[in-house]
Write a structure and sequence with these properties.
The complex is a heterotrimer of chains A (about 220), B (about 230) and C (about 230). With about 220 residues, chain A is mainly alpha-helical. Chain A has helices at about 1-20, 20-40, 50-70, 75, 80-85, 90-120, 130-155, 165-170, 175-190, 195-220. The chains are: A mainly alpha (about 220), B alpha/beta (about 230), C mainly alpha (about 230).
Chain lengths: ~220, ~230, ~230
């Protein structure tokens, strides 16, 4: 099974590396969000470091949603999904492969967006980086576990891309709340002990929704 | 062997299949005819396990079509090619071979690509292929695992002369090797030529079911027309 | 099928509701004592909190019905899930409207990002999203599957949302305090309101479910008409 997850994952990676459709859009949009916030928060320029965690994660979530939207676009074209469904294997493998690919793309975008934010908001971070990596990874995983399932749902509706943010954002609120808080704790305080609770909630979210999405995915795919 | 009983499929108030029953012994080649919307595609999708019937039962050698055992026995080809346009033929086949637990060696894949007449063009993105070439690759993809049951939904659509010839030969050869085939088709002459058994689906039911040997082509065409034109 | 099961039950419930609502109004406005700090304003509590409880109960019904649909694939579970959600949304709307009405005079703000109120808002949005999913899937059977899956996701998400917001609130405290213990003298009015709202929940769900069942039946009949063509 892990071998087949890797096959699905590799295929998505291969397509993306060749076309760079999703990644380009995600990067561009994420950076645009940063710029927009820069103007929106003009009046609080001196305390902008306070706002950075929130701005970052909004950029991540918007950018990630773009990526998720594209996730099933290639599969719908030419009914590639049908080909996948005909393979005699557990369909959860499709879920895992795609979820991991989405996570990787989102993490790539996050790194770039984060670097841009360091420049735009004049931040310096060195010691904080390992902790930030931890929060980014777990937060992103949580986002993509449920995002993959909801993207599959949205792809099957009339509104497709428009519906995904509408149904996704309320559900991933816990990710947003905890990831922003955790990022704030890392960037603006030195109280790393306080990270335990948000990281626990993020991990719990990821495990619960990872399992749930894996189990429910099959229902969404069948006709 | 395929067996369907009392098969029904609704989409809200519209019934695509009403009460379809059919038995397909192993090795038989059935040409499926019918007007648009008669239920051919729905029927094939249910057999392939891609759609769940609203009522009735389907068995593929005593397994449900959706089971992994059944999927291993079935190859399904619709008019959508299920090919990733941005990948090459090689990459498409390697992907499916990896999932199907069959050889992903370059040599074997090369052989498969050559067997559908695409030798030497395996390293181009599928996007560059003509419709006929894509269909041929789709055939290679759909039947990569050499399944015993071939389900085809209007596979000749959009094919040129060469493509049609190729597919005809491919299907005849498969038939000769003992594969069970169900093929939905519009071209009556072509279907007649390839099949053992002629089945017409109309209004979600089997309306006509004849062994090919028992009827001449013109006679069949007359009966088919009479059936589908009655009001 | 032209009458709901146990049709007399609806009449009984209706009668109980009529009596019960009058009783609840009396107890809330007259029977219960006046609260010390907020005065009569506090009486909103008797409608605000039971509405919240019934909203939650309705969504629990959605969760259960969604699970059952995925297991049994019987559309009546889908009808139940839909009925429960619509009624639940109604109750939550009451919570979200009475909340600010209460908050403004009491704490001088329209909105408090308190855990309970915020979670109610998020829950409301989640189930609105559920209705949105339903709205955009044309095929009834697919619609039932998609919304059942989303209903399950939403229900599992809700407690996590609540805890996340509560924890966030602990890190960002504000001056607002929500009412804690209930004065024993207020309990009769409170419990009466809970009971009446519960009957209201059941009654409305039954009526809504009956409407959906009629729709299912109409769909079945239309199918028969189509077959005869």
């Amino acid at each position: 099974m892990p071998g087949k997850v890797w096959v699905v994952f590799r295929k998505d990676l291969l397509i993306e590396l060749r076309t760079k459709d999703s990644l380009n859009a995600m990067l561009f949009f994420g950076i645009v969000v940063l710029v927009v916030f820069n103007f929106a928060l003009e009046s609080v320029r001196d305390t902008i470091r306070e706002a950075v965690p929130g701005v970052l994660w909004i950029a991540f979530v918007f950018s990630g949603t773009l990526g998720l939207n594209r996730m099933f676009a290639a599969e719908k074209e030419n009914s590639c999904l049908q080909g996948l469904l005909m393979v005699p294997m557990d369909r959860g493998i499709i879920y895992l492969g795609k979820m991991l690919a989405a996570t990787v793309f989102m993490l790539i975008a996050e790194v770039v967006i984060f670097v841009f934010s360091l420049v735009f908001f004049n931040l310096t971070v060195w010691a904080e980086i390992p902790y930030l990596v931890l929060v980014f990874v777990i937060g992103t995983l949580g986002f993509t576990t449920v995002g993959t399932l909801l993207s599959a749902i949205a792809a099957n509706t009339r509104m497709r891309e428009v519906l995904l943010p509408l149904i996704l954002f309320p559900v991933v609120l816990p990710i947003l709340v905890n990831a922003v808080e955790a990022t704030r704790i890392i960037l603006n305080t030195a109280n790393y002990g306080a990270l335990k609770l948000p990281l626990t909630i993020l991990s719990t979210f990821t495990i619960i929704f990872g399992t749930l999405s894996y189990l429910l995915f099959d229902f969404v795919l069948e006709d | 062997m395929i067996e369907a009983q009392g098969l029904a499929k609704y989409f809200g108030r519209f019934s695509a299949l009403r009460n379809l029953a059919i038995r397909v012994p192993q090795g038989q080649f059935i040409a499926l005819f019918g007007r648009n919307g008669a239920g051919k595609t729905t029927f094939l999708k249910i057999l392939a396990g891609l759609s769940r019937p609203s009522a009735g039962s389907v068995k593929i050698c005593a397994d449900k079509p959706d089971s992994q055992a059944a999927r291993a026995m079935i190859g399904y080809l619709s008019h959508n090619t299920a090919l990733y346009l941005d990948l090459t033929a090689f990459e498409n086949l390697r992907f499916y071979a990896g999932l199907l637990d069959i050889s992903t060696s370059d040599a074997d894949l090369e052989e498969k690509i050559a067997s559908v007449g695409l030798a030497g063009r395996g390293r181009e993105p599928v996007r560059n292929y003509s419709r006929g070439m894509q269909q041929r690759l789709a055939i290679a993809r759909a039947f990569l695992h050499d399944p015993g049951i071939l389900l085809l939904d209007e596979p000749f659509t959009g094919l040129d002369q060469t493509g049609t010839e190729f597919l005809k030969n491919y299907l005849s050869a498969s038939h000769a090797r003992g594969k069970t085939c169900l093929m939905a088709i519009h071209d009556e002459a072509l279907g007649y030529e390839l099949a053992d058994r002629l089945v017409v689906i109309d209004k979600g039911n089997v309306a006509l079911d004849l062994p090919r040997q028992s009827v001449g082509l013109e006679d069949f065409q007359k009966r088919y027309r009479a059936l589908t034109e009655e009001r | 099928m032209d009458q709901p099961k146990y049709k007399h039950l609806d009449a009984i419930l209706g009668g109980l509701l009529l009596v019960g609502m009058i009783l609840a109004l009396y107890m809330a406005f007259i029977g219960a004592p006046r609260e010390r700090t907020m005065g009569d304003l506090q009486r909103i509590f008797y409608f605000h909190v039971p509405s919240g409880m019934m909203g939650l109960a309705a969504f629990a019904v959605n969760f259960f019905a969604s699970l059952m649909y995925l297991i049994k694939k019987d559309r009546k579970w889908d009808s139940l899930a839909l009925s429960a959600t619509e009624v639940g949304l109604m109750f939550l709307t009451i919570v979200l409207v009475t909340g600010p009405i209460w908050a403004k005079p009491a704490w001088f703000v329209w909105w408090t990002w308190s855990p309970r109120l915020t979670s109610s808002l998020v829950l409301w949005i989640l189930y609105l999203a559920y209705m949105l999913v339903r709205n955009y899937v044309p095929d009834p059977d697919r619609r039932a599957v998609m919304s059942a899956v989303f209903g399950i996701v939403a229900f599992v998400d809700a407690p996590i949302v609540f805890f996340s917001i509560r924890w966030w609130r602990d890190n960002h405290p504000s001056a607002m305090i929500e009412t804690g213990d209930l004065d024993p003298l207020m309990r009769p009015a409170f419990y009466t309101c809970i009971a009446v709202f519960l009957i209201l929940l059941v009654y409305l769900m039954r009526r809504r479910y009956f409407l959906e069942s009629a729709r299912l039946e109409a769909e079945r009949l239309e199918r028969l008409v189509d077959l005869a063509r």
